[in-house]
Fold this sequence. Notes:
Elements: H1 3-11, H2 13-34, H3 44-49, H4 51-65, H5 74-87, H6 94-109, H7 115-147, E1 153-162, E2 167-174, E3 188-192, E4 202-206, E5 216-221, H8 234-242, E6 248-251, E7 268-273, H9 277-288, E8 296-302, H10 311-320, E9 324-330, H11 335-340, E10 345-346, H12 351-355, E11 362-366, H13 369-381, E12 389-392
Parallel strand pairs: 7-8, 7-11, 8-9, 9-10, 11-12
Antiparallel strand pairs: 1-2, 1-6, 2-5, 3-4, 3-6
Amino acid sequence: MSPDTIATIKATVPVLQAHGEQLTRLFYQRMFENNPEVKPFFNQAHQQAGSQQKALAGAICAYAENIDNPTALAAAVELIAQKHASLGIKPEHYPIVGQNLLAAIKELLGDAATDDIINAWAEAYQVLADIFIQREAEIYQSHEQQHGWQGFKPFKVIKREDNSQIISSFYLQPADNQPLNPHLAGQYITVRVPATEEHEPMRNYSLSNKPGDDYYRISVKRETAIESEAPHGLVSNFLHDQVAAGDTIWVGPPCGEFTVRTPTGKSMVMIAGGVGITPLLSMLHASLDKNDTAQVTLIQAAVNGDALAFSEEIAELKDNNSNFDWHVRYSEPTDNDRYLGRFHSEGLIDEDLLDSVDKSADFYLCGPAGMMQHCHRLLTQAGIPSEQIHLEAFGPALQLASE
């Protein structure tokens, strides 16, 4: 990228910081009108909530701020490339995004959108697009080599079970009866279902089972609208209401960079909120299966006992592994919870609870964005280095550490 382009891009940072979400709203509006064929790649509930626009605005600002320091973007590039590969994004989709993004910049800036600015952003976008195209090609090739297929193929539902009042698990095996190679603990698969007449929407769901099983297990929370005008979760409700043992759904290979990075002999602390237990449960199985004597701690937060998932499965792991400690914290326990005594503490995760764990451990967090922001802040205040903290955000990736 030329020095003039870099200078021009960095000069637009203040405008992006002030009007980034306005830009991304214009971008999505234009793209969905001009290229409706790309709508299946996007979660419309996230669009209506504004979280997708906010995430993209943050990503564009980060790119502009670090345009001369690409290594600072490596982690974000890998996260997005994995997400793109999970959905089947191909090189031909990038010009669609570029054309609509440049048009949105022109509309937002008006007369201030000089040729120098538009040309600089066109060059910068193409450089970034080339990076993604190359990395995604590598991921697609690895899917073929490691798992034996790219894109989507049919899987049969061999079992369905309820894990809580709002979470159900679906056990999946390839319809062609081909064996499954192990996924990496923490990864997700993409599910495509015929939920509407117009298209078959896709969603990512973490694999909650142990790597090496002869099936995939996804554990899906029924997503209900928070606001009266917002839609319910399209795919999650379809799975809960329409899919049973014996049915077939379409599945993509495992993707995702939120995986176990802790070396043998080092302790781990996992902090799960609600359905955020799903990737951590796979990590828990994999970590305890290594016969490593290092301490593994799970802090599982839930509203109450009705919302707590996998308690029997985790209790069995606790009984069979002396190096595993499990702490259940309810934010709003019921009278029945208190009577049964099947939780360890009450309230939100706080400093006192985190003070009880090994500060030299690697920390893995997954749950609602607010919970992860809160826990990340507590860990940072406790002096935990950033390289020991690993996060997984369901939905658009937010700048959790800074909010």
